[in-house]
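Journal club prep — side note

Before the paper discussion, L.F. wants everyone to see what a predicted structure for a comparable chain looks like in token form. Sequence:
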Amino acid sequence: MSDPLRLLIAEDSEDDTWLIIRELQRGGFRPHFERVETASAMREAIEANTWDLIISDYSIPSFGGQAALAVYHQRALDIPFIMVSGVMGEETAVEMMKAGAHDYVLKDNLARLVPAVIRELRAAQERRVRKQTEAAMTHLAAIVQSCEDAIIGTSLDGTVLSWNAGAERLYGYQAIEMIGRSNSVLIPPHRPREMPEIFESLVRGARVEGIETVRLRKEGQPVDVLMTISLVKDEAGRVVGASSIERDISRRKQEENDRLRLIEELTAALAQVKTLTGLLPICAGCKKIRNDEGYWQQVETYVKEHSNAEFTHSLCPQCVTRLYPEYHQRVLGSGVK
């Protein structure tokens, strides 16, 4: 099956144009082309459509290969530009190649055209892929650099290879201070086996994420961090290092500690609270309560010993009437209720 090819031809000869088209068809292409003879027509065609390839004659009345190449450069195109001419000498061909043409083919040797087109189309595709890859890498680098979390890349032996702005803020070291240096300066002395054990887990295929640990800032101050570590592999799948994302969780840890301390304080306070439960033997006459030792105590004394209650003394209305009837009568006579 033939491959479609969007072709722009700068050529003043219709016959030569059809010879070029026929050669491309023989080579397995299905050209959709437009022929132009002037610089303005070429500019309009470039603006109006997207092209895979430009083929230009070197000698066109009041136009030509050099002018066509100038239009090509003005539009900053990244597609193959091939000169096809019957009058171009070796020296001229070299000049045109230096000026930016990708290849040249003589009209009396059009057998070279299809291989040249295939080669240049493949090279243009490789350039596009490379540019896309570079753009993606640049974008990824910008994301890493602007990330609030520390993102650190290391080699197999722990040498720091990359150190983003988040790592600078978290640990206080500038990238120039850490790149090429061992990441062991961040690890507290009492955790010497932590990173080797993590790396061994990664090599075994385990996921290492959400690890809460402690690291050291430049001034030696410990900082609580949450870590996620991944292996870094090359194109062949070989492990060449590790990358870690580290987040400061000091504030969260402090909040957790404050909450635990509050719970402990509340628990201790509740342990001091005394409660009365069960059946209490109470005298039906004097209302004394028998304690655990079998002695009878006043209600106030017993309750105070078995709880945190405090007593204030007063008289209920019934007791006032019973104990102080004369006071009760005066209150009724005065109309006070």
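L.F.'s comment for the group: Residues 3-135 form a domain with the Rossmann fold fold (CATH 3.40.50.2300). Keep this in mind when we get to the figures.
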